[in-house]
């Protein structure tokens, strides 16, 4: 196997460096790409995170997988990229310095924007080697996502793989133009998108679910070495085919009432919004029966802000 002009032999683990651009200080930026091959042939799995630079929970999941050497396969090849958007990671921001969301610029261009160049290089040098992928994300802007896998509808193989990973929630989500998932799908790569936690935060429970789900995923391909225990998921996986965002009707101080992952009934009180002077409280109610799969943890909200993501029509 040859990646980025380096040969990785069977039984070998190498850390390659993808160099695309420099900081404005002329400092070189290297994106570590950790490639581990088994002696026995098998599929190639990509585990990636940090496409949005402030989504640290995904970075922590891939970091743990590498640290524990789960990424050294029994068969096949595992490629780990803990941080794709190294610029955003340094600046603790979602976007690139050019203001672009990398997850909306795929397939990118060799001569385009900074984010577009990263997308182009990722698809040109890494993805052609990949059969399956798990891309790890977190909620943005203080929005905490319940651990969930997102896949496109009507894809039996992805449904089976998501069931093996077995998060608390499986969410059917159509491909978005310009996204990494969409670009991989067009190139024949089967990708699971994991969401869990929120930006600029590391939640240990979410990280554990991500690591354990990945172990189940790898074990299904006989890629997990025998020294690692596979822990069966202890919760039911709720399948969500449609969902709706509940938005604030007023601005003010936000007082969440409902725990992430909870099931609520239509008309049930789920939060309050109050003015800072004690004269008014506005009650938010569930628009339908469903599970709360995203909660806005921000203490202050503005009219129109997304506060809850709730499933519907289960």
Q: How far is it from the N-terminal to the C-terminal residue, by CA? A: 45 Å
Low-confidence segments, ≥5 residues, pLDDT <50? Answer: none
Oligomer: single chain
- The residue fraction in helices comes out at 10-25%
Write the layout of secondary structure elements.
Layout: E1 2-3, E2 6-7, E3 13-22, E4 28-37, E5 40-49, H1 56-67, E6 75-81, H2 86-91, H3 114-125, E7 132-139, E8 143-151, H4 156-165, E9 169-172, H5 180-186, E10 190-198, H6 204-220, E11 238-240, E12 242-247, E13 252-256, E14 263-264, E15 269-274, E16 281-285, E17 290-296, E18 300-301, E19 306-312
Parallel strand pairs: 5-6, 5-7, 7-10, 8-9, 9-11
Antiparallel strand pairs: 1-2, 3-4, 4-6, 8-10, 8-17, 12-19, 13-15, 13-18, 14-17, 15-16, 17-19
Summarize this structure briefly.
This protein is α+β, with helices and mostly antiparallel strands. The protein has helices at residues 56-67, 86-91, 114-125, 156-165, 180-186, 204-220, and strands at residues 2-3, 6-7, 13-22, 28-37, 40-49, 75-81, 132-139, 143-151, 169-172, 190-198, 238-240, 242-247, 252-256, 263-264, 269-274, 281-285, 290-296, 300-301, 306-312. It is built from 6 helices and 19 strands.
Q: Care to describe what's here?
A:
With 314 residues, the protein is of the alpha+beta class. It has helices at residues 56-67, 86-91, 114-125, 156-165, 180-186, 204-220; strands at residues 2-3, 6-7, 13-22, 28-37, 40-49, 75-81, 132-139, 143-151, 169-172, 190-198, 238-240, 242-247, 252-256, 263-264, 269-274, 281-285, 290-296, 300-301, 306-312. Strands 3, 4, 5, 6, 7, 8, 9, 10, 11, 12, 14, 17 and 19 form a 13-stranded mixed sheet that branches. It has a four-stranded antiparallel sheet with strand order 16-15-13-18, with no helix packed on it.
């Amino acid at each position: 196997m040859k990646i980025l002009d380096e040969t990785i032999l069977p039984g070998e683990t190498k850390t390659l460096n993808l160099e695309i651009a420099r900081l404005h200080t002329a400092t070189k930026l290297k994106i570590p790409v950790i490639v581990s091959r088994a002696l026995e042939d098998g599929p190639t799995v990509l585990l990636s995170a940090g496409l949005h630079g402030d989504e640290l929970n995904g970075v922590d999941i891939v970091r743990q997988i590498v640290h524990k050497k789960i990424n050294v396969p029994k068969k096949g090849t595992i490629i780990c990229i803990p941080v794709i958007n190294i610029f955003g990671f340094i600046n603790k921001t979602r976007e690139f310095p050019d203001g672009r969301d990398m997850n909306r610029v795929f397939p990118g261009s060799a001569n385009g924007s900074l984010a577009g160049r990263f997308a182009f290089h990722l698809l040109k040098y890494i993805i052609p080697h990949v059969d399956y992928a798990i891309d790890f994300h977190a909620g943005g802007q203080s929005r905490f996502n319940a651990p969930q896998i997102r896949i496109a509808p009507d894809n039996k193989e992805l449904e089976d793989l998501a069931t093996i990973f077995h998060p608390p929630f499986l969410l059917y989500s159509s491909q978005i133009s310009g996204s990494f998932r969409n670009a991989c799908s067009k190139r024949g790569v089967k990708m699971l998108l994991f969401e869990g936690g929120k930006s600029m935060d590391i939640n240990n429970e979410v990280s554990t679910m991500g690591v354990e789900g990945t172990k189940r995923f790898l074990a299904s391909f006989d890629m997990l070495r025998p020294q690692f225990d596979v822990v069966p998921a202890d919760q039911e996986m709720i399948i969500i085919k449609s969902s709706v965002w509940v938005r604030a009707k007023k601005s003010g101080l936000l007082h969440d009432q409902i725990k992430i992952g909870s099931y609520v009934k239509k008309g049930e009180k789920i939060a309050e919004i109050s003015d800072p002077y004690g004269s008014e409280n506005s009650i938010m109610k569930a628009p339908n029966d469903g599970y709360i799969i995203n909660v806005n943890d921000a203490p202050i909200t503005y009219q129109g802000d997304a506060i809850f993501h709730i499933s519907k029509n289960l």
